[in-house]
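Case study B.
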Amino acid sequence: MEGKTIIEMQGIIKAFYIGTPNQLEILHGINLSVKEGEFVSIVGASGSGKSTLMNIIGVLDRPTAGNYILDGIQISSVGDKKLSEIRNKKIGFVFQNFNLISRTSAIKNIELPMLYAGIPKQKRTKRAKELLELVEMSDRASHMPNELSGGQKQRVAIARAMANDPAIILADEPTGALDSYTGRLVMDIFHRLNKEQGKTIVLITHNNELAAETDRIITMKDGMTYENPATKREAGQ
Amino acid sequence: MNIGENILLAFASLKSNKMRALLTMLGIIIGISSVIMITTLGNALQGSVTSTFEDFGTNLIELYIAYKDDSTSRPVDEKDLISDEMIDALKEQYGENILSISTSLDVGKGKIKVGRNDVKLSISGTNEGFCESNAIEVSEGRFITEKDIKGGKNVIVIADKAVSKLFPKGTDPIGQELKIKTDSGTLAMTVVGVYKSKVSKMMSAMMMSDSETTNAYIPISTAQRFMDSDNGYKFFDFKAAKGLDYKKFAEEAASFMNEKFYKDNPYFQVKFYCFEQQLDSFMQILSIVKLVITIIAGISLLVGGIGVMNIMLVSVTERTREIGVRKALGATNGAIRMQFIVESIIICLIGGVIGILLGLLLGNIGALIIGSPAAPSISGIITAVTFSLAIGVFFGYYPANKAAKLDPIEALRYE
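Model:
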C-alpha cells in the first residue's frame, strides 16, 4: 500500500541555547517519513529525545534547523496562528496523563477542538456523540473527568483527539498511567482507528511489547533515529 | 471560539471558586456601591434642599445687626436694635421692591398638659408678614394680624399636628383656650388659627429637632411684653420682588440701613443674609462632597481592579496546564487571551451589578432617613457599568496576555 506521505522530516536539528557559547543539541539531524495509514511507534530511553521529537511532530515546537513537511505543509514557513490551526485540524494529541479539562464534562471536552475550529454548536454536539459511541463512552457523556476512571479518561481523550478528523494521532505514552488491562483496551481502540478509519498513528512508548504490535518501530538513541529493518519489511508487505 | 462560549466558560470557572470570586469582587462592589449611594443620596438631598428653598423662596432676605468689630462684646442695647421706624423707612425707600416684611422673637419652648402627657410647642412672636415670608399655609381660622399686634392680644396659631394631640377628635380648635407653661411663666392663649405642618423632613433631620415639637405663633407685641424684652429686633426678614438681583438688593438694603441709622453707632452695623446665596453655597458644598466621595470611590475601584488582576494572575498560574492543553488542541493566543479577559470582565460586571443594587438600596435607605424621595441617577448607573467593564478589560489584559504567551510545551509540563 503506497499512500501519500504525511510526515516528511529531513535533517531535523533541535538545539537549546543555555547561554552562549553553550549549546545543547537534543536532536542531531533526524530523517523520518511516515505514510498515510501507518501505525508507527517511537521507542527509546528517557533523555533520548523522544519528547522533543514528538513536540516537533505535533508542531508545539519548531526545529532549529531542517525541513519538516506535515501533510503537504512546510512547517518552517508558517506563523504562530497557522501553527495553532495545524494543531487544531491536522493533529490529535493523546497524552499519558489524559489532560482532560477539569470541571468540564466528557462531551464538552470532546467538543473543545471543534469549538476552536469554529464549528457550530449543533454539528459539534452531533460529532461529539458519534465519537463517544466510537470509544464506547456514550453513557458517560455528561460525566466530569474526576468521575471517570483512568481508562475512561483516556478513551474520552482519544475521542477528543479525533474531533476534527486529524491527519495524524500523536499518542505520547497513552497507556503509561493505565494498568495492563485498560492499557489493552486503549491499544485496541488505536488499532481499530488505524484499521477501520485508516488513521495515521504515531505512538511514543517505553513498552516494547506494545511497540511490537505496530507496523514499524523507530528507536531513538542520543538524538538519532534507528529503524529495525525487520519490522520495516513487515510493514512493507 | 465565540463570546457566548467564553462567557459560559467564565461562569463555570467562577462557580468552581465562589468564595474567591466574591472576595475578588468586593473591591469593585464597595467602589461601585458607594458611587451609586452617594449620587442617589446627593440627588435626593439636592432635590430636597432646592424644594425647601423654593418653599421659602430664594427671594427671602434677612437683615441683622452685628458687631462692627468682632473684638467688642458690649451687650446689645435697645438703641442698637432695629426699630419699627427703621423698617418703615426701608419700606418707604424701596416701596414695591419689598413684598412682605416679617419680624419674629423667640419665646422658647412651651408645654401644655393634656392628661398625663405634655404637648410641646416652640413659640415665636411674629408679625403678619411672617406668614408669607415663611410660606405658612393656614388651614383653619387665620394667621396673626396687624390688629392682634397693635392690641397685643393673647392669641395663638398652632400646627394641625398639635391640634390632634390637644383636643379630642371633632373638636373645633378655633376659640379654644390654652394654658402654656414656659420657662418665663405661663401664657394663656386663645387659638385663632391652625396651619398645616409642613416642616421639611430634611430640615428636621439636619437640625435633629424633636419631631414632637411643633411651632406656634403669637403676636410679636405679646411676645415682647411677655418676655419683657426691648422694643426692636435683632433681625428681620423680607421678600424682595421677583426678578431683582437678590444679593445686590440685599446689599443695597443693608447699606441703606447703615447709612441712615447705624453710621453713628460705634459698635453695631446691619448685615445681610441672602437665601439665594445660601442655596448656591450649599449646592457648591454638596458638589464638593460628591466629588470627594467619587474620588474615594475611584480609588477603591482602582484597588478593586488591582485585586482582580491579582486573582487573574493566580488563576492563570493555576491553570497553566489547562492553557497548555488548550493550545495543543488548537487554541490560538487570541482565543486564550479572550477567555481570560472575558472572565475578568464577568467578575467586574457581576461586582458592578451587585454594587449598583447595594448602592441603590443604601441610597434609598439614606433618602428615607433624610425624608426626601430617592433620586437614582441613570447616568451614574450607566457610568458604573461602563467603568466596571473598563476595569475588567484594563486589569484583565495583563494576566490574559501572560496566559496567551505561555509556551505550550512548558505549560503542558507544568505540575
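Residues 232-237 of chain A have pLDDT under 50 and may be disordered. The remaining cases will be described in the next quarterly update.
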